[in-house]
């Protein structure tokens, strides 16, 4: 098996304990790599290195333009390694090569964009009402950032954090998921070759309690950027509050995909399938609740089931595969457990509902695309994030009822609207409590556009100009131009 080492302070290191753990290929169910199993000692080394680099002349002494040039150089390097990185991701998380290749090819745009933005972070001269004073603001890096990323799209989501943080002048310690650590370690090799100073970027691998918890609570960490479940996000938020750390939390979702009677049904069917069965449903924005207007409910559901039934399950490296395995065994057990719950709650299984039975799927972690009808929004299958290819269909009568059902959720990450009514397309998004609303499309994203949720779906934004603000702090500077200091006992 391939053996990896952690990347700390510009060096490749084993875990201080000498321990490691296996990383499994979801398609075969077999281990393929050994990953260092870090702990508090490794976290301390990495954070100390990042803190030292934050104040080093090699990093802090760089002009903003020079930081931007490094980021653009990294983007160029990523373009050369897109296929290699995608292959590693498929081996580690089981998602389709075509999906991972699209992500690893596109993520360089974050480094180009934020590389260009690095020297355009401008303060303001404020026309103050205080005579004899000059006041201006400047923006500084927030400090050392602990970045904790999930297993579904490790490099893509790491880029969303890494590019703005580096452009702002921060330093980073990454903790990848224990299920998908290899691709970020491969990424570190590229970053090392580009020439970033030691300590600016570090990767500590291991389990959540041994690495994630001490990293997010470390006294030298100024900000935590986390993508993952809302349960873990709440723990990180509480821990960060104890030491007044800043946080960006991109958490879960139970997104509603709403189809009105006037929608283009062919496009809507494709949009619904994209929203829940692409990436085997392992996306935070998965449109796992399908709301269909009652007047077209039966015919639309029939078309949807017929189309979803044609999805080809198979080897994620094959070009014709449309549904691959889920990433890890605990997640497979969670998904099949929710399928059983839905059946017990009275939902009707129209498609799937089990693991595929063909011999070629015997060892891999596969579950069939699954569709449930007769779902009430109060059911667990409609309220709790499953993070798998399981769709719940809920009928509605009119726009008001659709909005009420869509907003009746702890989450508020994304939603979709399918309609040919221009008035509805423009006005309905204002009524939906979600950070992203797609109209007649789904899962469309860009480095230019801020992304983040409402309610239990998180805090803060990633990407776009708002993304870099999450890694900056504003300082106000006052300079007196008066020739004589007035009464020192009175506020000026």
TrEMBL record:
It comes from Pollutimonas harenae. CDD domains: ALDH_DhaS (cd07114). The keyword Oxidoreductase applies. Residues 12-477 form the Aldehyde dehydrogenase domain. This is Aldehyde dehydrogenase. Keywords: Oxidoreductase. It comes from the Bacteria. GO terms for molecular function: oxidoreductase activity, acting on the aldehyde or oxo group of donors, NAD or NADP as acceptor. PROSITE patterns: ALDEHYDE_DEHYDR_CYS, ALDEHYDE_DEHYDR_GLU. The active site is at 250. InterPro entries: Ald_DH/histidinol_DH, Ald_DH_C, Ald_DH_CS_CYS, Ald_DH_CS_GLU, Ald_DH_N, Aldehyde_DH_dom. Belongs to the aldehyde dehydrogenase family.
């Amino acid at each position: 098996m391939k053996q990896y080492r952690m990347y700390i302070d510009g060096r490749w290191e084993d875990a201080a304990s000498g321990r490691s753990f296996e990383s499994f290929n979801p398609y075969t169910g077999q281990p393929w790599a050994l990953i260092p199993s870090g702990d508090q000692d490794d976290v301390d080394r990495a954070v100390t290195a990042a803190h030292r680099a934050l104040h080093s002349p090699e990093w802090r002494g760089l002009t903003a333009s020079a930081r931007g040039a490094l980021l653009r150089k990294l983007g160029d390097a990523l373009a050369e390694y897109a296929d290699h990185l995608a292959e590693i991701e498929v081996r580690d998380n089981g998602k389709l090569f075509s999906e991972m290749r699209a992500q690893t090819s596109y993520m360089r745009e974050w480094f180009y964009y934020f590389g260009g933005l690095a020297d355009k972070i401008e303060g303001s001269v404020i026309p103050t009402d205080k005579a004899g004073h000059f006041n201006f603001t400047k923006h500084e890096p927030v400090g050392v950032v602990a970045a904790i990323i999930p297993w579904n799209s490790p490099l893509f989501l790491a880029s969303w954090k890494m590019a703005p943080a580096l452009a702002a002048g921060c330093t980073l310690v990454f903790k990848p998921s224990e299920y998908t650590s290899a691709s970020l370690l491969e990424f570190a090799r590229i970053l090392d070759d580009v020439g970033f100073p030691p300590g600016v970027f570090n990767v500590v691998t291991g389990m959540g309690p041994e690495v994630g918890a001490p990293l997010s609570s470390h006294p030298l960490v100024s900000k935590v950027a986390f993508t993952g479940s809302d349960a873990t996000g709440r723990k990180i938020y509480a821990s960060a509050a104890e030491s007044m750390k800043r946080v960006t939390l991109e958490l879960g979702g139970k997104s509603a995909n709403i189809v009105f009677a006037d929608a283009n049904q062919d496009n809507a069917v494709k949009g619904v399938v994209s929203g829940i069965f692409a990436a085997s449903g392992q996306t935070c924005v998965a449109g796992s609740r399908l709301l269909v207007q009652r007047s077209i409910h039966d015919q639309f559901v029939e078309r949807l089931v017929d189309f979803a039934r044609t999805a080809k399950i198979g080897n994620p490296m094959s070009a014709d595969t449309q549904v691959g395995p889920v990433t890890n065994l605990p997640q497979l057990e969670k998904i099949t457990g929710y399928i059983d719950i839905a059946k017990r709650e009275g939902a009707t299984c129209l498609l799937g509902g089990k693991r595929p039975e063909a011999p070629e799927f015997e060892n891999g972690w596969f579950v069939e695309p699954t569709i449930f009808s007769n779902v009430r929004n109060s059911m667990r299958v409609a309220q709790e994030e499953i993070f798998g290819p399981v769709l719940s269909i809920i009928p509605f009568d009119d726009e008001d009822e659709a909005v009420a059902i869509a907003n009746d959720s702890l989450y508020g990450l994304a939603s979709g609207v399918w309609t040919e009514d221009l008035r509805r397309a423009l006005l309905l998004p204002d009524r939906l409590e979600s950070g992203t609303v797609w109209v007649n499309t789904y899962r469309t994203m860009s480095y230019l556009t801020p992304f983040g949720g409402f309610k239990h779906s998180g805090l803060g934004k990633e990407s776009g100009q708002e993304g870099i603000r999450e890694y900056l702090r504003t300082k106000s500077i006052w300079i007196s131009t008066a020739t004589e200091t007035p009464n020192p006992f009175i506020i000026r």
